[in-house]
Amino acid sequence: MFEKVLIANRGEIALRVHRACKEMGIATVAIHSTADADAMHVRLADESVCVGPPPALESYLNKAAILSAATVTNADAIHPGYGFLSENASFARMVHEHGFTFIGPNADLIAVMGDKVAAKAAMIEAGVPVVPGSPGSVDDVESAVAAAEEVGYPVLVKAAAGGGGRGMKVAQDADALRKAVPVAQQEAQINFGNPAVFLERYLGHPRHIEVQVLGDKHGNVVSLFERDCSLQRKHQKVWEEAPAPGLSEAAREQIGSICREASARIGYETAGTFEFLYEDGEFFFIEMNTRIQVEHPVTEMITGVDLVAEMIRVAAGEKLSIRQEDLKINGHAVECRINAEDPETFAPSPGRISDFHTPGGIGVRVDSALYSGYAVPPYYDSLVAKLVVHGQTRTACLARVQRALEEMVIGGISTNIPLHQKLVAEQAVVEGNYDIHWLERYVGLK
User: Fold this and answer.
1) Dist CA 284 CA 287 (whole Å)
2) Known catalytic residues?
């Protein structure tokens, strides 16, 4: 087992990894920008190293500085968390070349799954159902129009190296597609340094359902059931739950089996997530995230499995501590992403925390690096806390979510807690009757 792990991230996920390491008897190294010198993960880690000024490109994305920090602190391994360099194949390769262990998949797998066109081809070969679309990237407007005639309108133009909705455009017909392609290519180039785009059929009312998997270096693979992440705004998840409301046991077993077999086929050996659109009883693969997910706590709540600890064990060469037959769904869990933003306009709301009180009681977990007096910086993602609630039934869970939201206090900044308080009381949410477009329609009416 590792003696010391460097955590190449910030905020609540850095704190989450730190806690898993400490429970396993592993020393931790926190990296931080100058803006995060007083961050909670920095205060709690055994050692800390400043890797640069506030801009992420000069700190949390500064590969050389992070590797130098690992070297001077004699770390054994690097856990990238999510975001930043977590799915950067060149960084994973550099970590290995410098003699450290990357707590994640190998660089080649990251590279394949990071390119949506290549990932789709790999999934087709592995027998995973995919959204109908262009066989590869489309290089120009006319080739896109030709491909769309085969796929059928409406189509979605997507960045091959993208994510988070950037470089993504919907086209209802050929004229709209001719306008959308160059705009999507430009956005893809600006955001990802790669202008390649491809087409997929646009599904009108799908749900976003993802399957959590774990693999090890000994060929063992398990699936830890699914999460529903359909409540999204601008392709950013707001509310996640597990298991997916209304999904039949037959469908659950089918998609879990498909993901296990695909993971084994590609030799997957850490935590990963297969993401699907689900419509009219059919699953369509959209991407695989080769890292821990923001919403991993809901899976932990219904399975009792510490996903981060399993990642660390696997990276150290150990076998998974669980078998598929050991895994059972226990109750229901919901995660509310608490963001530092205006609940009506969604404008970012950085600032100093004047009051911070987390709810408690049975089945309530809050993952957050906030504390009274902490200044939320304006340079990074707006996520400041995750309220994760478990109940024996979905109805009991939602009642507990409502109660927990009433108790939660974050003073000094605006947050989207009021939005979550509205959502938990909405009939469509209570009934689990929503798709990936529902929340945008909802906030557009409020």
Assistant:
1) 10
2) 291
